[in-house]
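Suppose you are handed a protein chain with no further information: no name, no annotation, nothing but its sequence. What can you learn? This example shows the usual starting point.
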Amino acid sequence: MAPRLVIAANSQSFDQIIISHWQEEGFEVRFEPVRDDSKSSIRSIESIGDTLESGEKYAVVSFLSAH
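A reasonable first move is to predict its three-dimensional structure. Written in C-alpha cells, the prediction is:
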C-alpha cells in the first residue's frame, strides 16, 4: 500500500503540479483545506490516523499563508 501524504492548507485549493510530483513519487496524496482554525478541520486531519491499517504510515504537511 502506498504511503499517505496529507497536505493541509488554509485555502480551498492547492497546486496540482506539486500534488502530482508527490503522486509520481508513489504517495497517495490527499488535500485537506483548513478553515480559520476550525475545530472540524483539525478533527478531520487528526482522524486520518484512525483509518490506517496496522503498519501503515502517513505524514501531514501544512502550508499556511498570511492574509
